[in-house]
Amino acid sequence: MEDNEELNQELNEDQPIEEGSGIDDSQDALTKVTGMYKDWFLDYASYVILERAVPAIEDGFKPVQRRILHSLKELDDGRYNKVANVVGHTMQYHPHGDASIADAMVQIGQKDLLIDTQGNWGNILTGDRAAASRYIEARLSKFALDVVFSPKITEWQLSYDGRKKEPVNLPVKFPLLLAQGAEGIAVGLSTKVLPHNFNELIDASIKHLKGQRFKLYPDFPTAGIIDVNNYNDGLRGGKIRVRARMSQKDKNTLVINEIPYGTNTSSLIDSILKANDKGKIKIKKIEDNTAADVEILVHLPSGISPDKTIDALYAFTSCESSISPLSCIIEDNKPIFIGVSEMLKQSTDLTVELLKAELEIQLSELEEQWHFASLERIFIENRIYRDIEEEETWEGVISAIDKGLKPHTKHLKRAVTEEDIVRLTEIRIKRISKFDIDKAQQYLDSLEEKIAEVKHHLANLIDFAIDYFKNLKTKYGKGRERKSEIRVFDDIEATKVVIRNTKLYVNREEGFVGTSLRRDEYVTDCSDIDDIIVFTKDGKAMITKVDSKTFIGKNIIHVAVFKKKDKRTTYNMIYKDGKGGPTYIKRFNVTSVTRDRLYDLTPGKPLTVVYYFSANPNGEAEVVTVNLRQVGSIKKLKWDVDFADVLIKGRASKGNIVTKYTVKRIELKEKGVSTLKPRKIWFDDVVRRLNVDGRGELLGEFRGDDLLLVINQKGIAKTLVPTMTSRFDDDMIVLEKWNPNKPLSAIYWDGGKERFYVKRFLIEQGNREDLFISEHPKSYLELVSTDWRPVIELEFPKPRGKDAKPNLSIDIEDFISIKGIKALGNQLTSEKVKNVNAMDSLPYEEPEEQEANEIEVVDEEDVSNETAQSKKGSSEKPEDPDIDDEGQTALF
């Protein structure tokens, strides 16, 4: 007790109380962690880092893994051992419980590299746990026996209780840490080394030995699609994006065949159900048919876009995840952070050193065998064994043999020792009597050949190591091809793919918008992560997040969901600039603003009022009629104004003058058409997405009603609206702007009739998909062309003993007329066909399309005051009365 009081007193004295700390002298003071507490913490932290959580660079194992492998080697007799027995044997070396050993062993076994498993070892795809250790069995794999163990070059140490010897590090001759990956949380640091592909690691090791550059990227056992642009060689700050592989089975069903690393089918399905409950996505039901391979069926309600749902699954569920690697390993008994490339280099260099050590031991053993075989031959051939018949003492025997050997040992590579002579005395009489000089010489010759071979390997160690790695790949690389596809991901904007899960309402007079105003006017469906844009009658605008109730300003004239960077939605507006001011007309876009800030679309004078307002999603420009009040001697009281005559400028521009006189009302006369230029759309094959940024192949210029034509290898043609969220599968063979007047030509194999058929057809209706080959399971599409006048060439096989039939060229336009998409078509030929080749099409001039009148879109904000008077306006002086209630505005 006295010692504790002294210790507490010492600790309290180490930490003085600062002035102004608010702590009274009577209260307990804050103390530093010093003395034995500090030492204990550092000891514990060091122990966890070095002995539990972080793998060693030398062999890629954590201590528990190393001890499990060592135990399996000690128990190895070629047969399976109960995992419970292995766990019990490992406890001789590992100072922790059986549960931790069993869990570590299951993790090694599930990686399917070092342990040959038998029984239910769990499933990394479904997350099912392994059976109890008494029910499952294991033995070392052939790969582990070849690569992991070499007792003669292993450094040994005493086990924790001093009763046994265990390896300090196993002599692993392979970059095992990178192949299996590792994850651990210690005190103050953690590690996360991602698994890499077996064959790619071997190829990289060979490249390193040849002095060539290499790149390493992860490969996951759950497959999936990965984006490695920010991998950063596995160092801190790197990131990998992983996606499930999903495709569209039919228009109402999605199928997930591969899942991201770190998830399983159960957790993935749970995340999808949660997103559905929150209204982020809409699904009908989910089926999990996973067995040996993943198969999750996601059934969609009718009317829900599969493409948009795929994006939403990536945005709101575990179908896409981000993994941050952190390559921390133990080297020279301390943790260090190095990249995976440096890890592979060190592992490869260590493998070379281990191979060298094994070769040197092998050379020493061969030379020792050659030395004793030579002594044995001299001993027997020269009958030296007879010289010991008269000797009565052991020393005399040794001396006699030594004396007899001396004349014949000049060619030996080392001196004869007493141990050599003792071994000679142990040769049995039966062996001496059956000694064959020729066989002995052959044995010596074979040893000399082996010695020369080992010396050659040592002299050409790098070539030997390269051959060693090539042999590993040949022996064990089959079936270990890359599973995760490397691809550049497109960024998915959550606001564009979220399902509209709530309704937006507006109280125009009071100036409120929100989702809780159910008694007021319904505006549109929206999601809870959307932004909305609101315009008021006094020429103000605001963008705000969807909420239950938000005040904007009284007399709201327009509410809509806001699309960021939207350059096509155009707002047409006519307003009076303050009390008695002139009337202006303007067209503008709103691409980006600060949320919850009130913007003035007019000069901001008091009593400014908006006479006319319209929002046009594709830049439409209508015609309106301006009606003036009869005041004074105004001659022209009514005329039309066409918004197409007004340039689209920034939202802060003042606009053009319509009139200086008092406006009675403005009426819509004629709805407008789009005044924007057709939108150029490209297809980026890397991310397999459409874009308007000029990346990839230009598909054409698209107006509002233009569609895309997509044809896949299954013989399905579909036309669809070109949206930036559209997805395109890997089996797509045609993607272009759809021309309804241009026929499609297809050659396909009919599985039922076992003949090639050709057909020529038009797609008569847009926004649909059709199968244009026969539905027989053995039918397949051979060739499809969207040219006006395609030509094909038939190549026939060469019969035995006969000349091949000459190739046949066919003009498809002459061969068959245009028929319906469901028509069978004409038989191409009754003979066997080797190949169907597409040739250069015949010339054809497409009819030119008449271009609509287009006007320029000015994206920059023009904040200068525009004082040019409209040509249709009058030059007489305006009067300044207030607008009466009867006709002050006509809202569209």
Cα-atom radius of gyration: 42 Å
For the sheet with most strands, the description reads:
5 strands, mixed
Q: Helix/strand-derived class?
A: alpha+beta
The average pLDDT value, as a whole number, equals 85
Are there runs of 5+ residues with pLDDT below 50, and where? 1-27, 850-892
Question: Helical amount among residues, as a percent range?
Answer: 25-40%
- What would you call the shape? elongated
Q: Return the CATH topology of the domain at 369-469.
A: Topoisomerase, domain 3
Gap between N and C termini, in Å? 89 Å
Summed up, what is this model?
By secondary structure, the chain is an alpha+beta fold. Among the domains are: 240-323, 2-Layer Sandwich (Gyrase A, domain 2); 369-469, Orthogonal Bundle (Topoisomerase, domain 3); 739-838, no CATH class. Helices cover 25% and strands 25% of the residues.
Q: What descriptors fit this protein?
A:
892 residues, Gyrase A, domain 2, Topoisomerase, domain 3, 5-stranded mixed β-sheet, 4-stranded mixed β-sheet, 47 strands, elongated
